[in-house]
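#lab-general

N.A. 3:47 PM
ok so I finally got the sequence cleaned up, no stray characters, all 115 residues accounted for. can someone with queue access submit it? mine expired

B.Y. 3:52 PM
send it over

N.A. 3:53 PM
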Amino acid sequence: SVAADDATLLHCMVHVREGKFPGEYGTGFQNAAFWSGRVDEHPIFAQVKLAALAAAPPDMLAEIQRELTHGWSPGIFVKRSRDCVAAGRDTSYCDTLLNAIFRLLFEHMWAKLVT
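B.Y. 4:20 PM
back already:
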């Protein structure tokens, strides 16, 4: 159901926020990877793709464009976030996009409540 997809995507993103820290079943990234495979499609994915491109720093834009050739998915984002932290790279892009995902998901769920 759409409500289950909302909850699953939110659950996944909360685990991304946990990051490398241990959670209920491994690290936040490990849990996020599990939950990312449970949402194949969601109404906000097209908006997240646009947010991902808008947030991309100039030196990462070509790489992110290639990454998003077939659209945005939670799995792509979990991997990028995990790899960025593991390599000790700047996480500003991932943090900005994660905040955008939370906002877009909240707005999507709120719109369903008030209509």
